[in-house]
Amino acid sequence: MASEHQIRQYLAYWLQLGKKVVINNGKQPLLPEPVIEGDRYSKEFEECWQKILDPSSGDSYLEGTEETIKELLTPAWEMMICARCPMPVPVRVQGMPAAVCPCHNLLNWPNTELPLPRPPISSQNHLTVIRNRLLRTAQSPQDPQEPQPAHKFGTLIPLSLDFPGCPGESTGPDDHHQDTAQSG
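Request: output the structure for the sequence above.
Response:
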């Protein structure tokens, strides 16, 4: 089941790529800008989220998709990573998958030359994590003859912490086949 946090993050990621949220049963598109302000979602994004949750707004959905936000907030849906790009997509827990991925109509996506969408980041917390990692490395130097682990997935966005089935997570016996296909 997708949490409210994951649905908010899903919307924030796609809004950063210019997708709109449509409310009032398809009559009113919303594209809050900016989506993120430092370590939190922007006031505009929060206002958009409140409109989405307001029952008087009718059905709301991400532009180019068929699932309403109300449906995504039920136990029938969870968030996974798109097979085509490193973005969150809704997936039914049981039954047929969603008809389309939100990236299907983005002409220049995926585009590795642009920064990827991201969640709000606390700079202080992020710098503390980097400092601690550097301190651990300095305290336990590695043997220069020992091969360094290579990250075979390229640049990852922080989705792996919030969405199951992300690159790097073990989900079953087919993982090795998928990993080797991506690294080749």
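Residues 4-119+154-174 form one domain.
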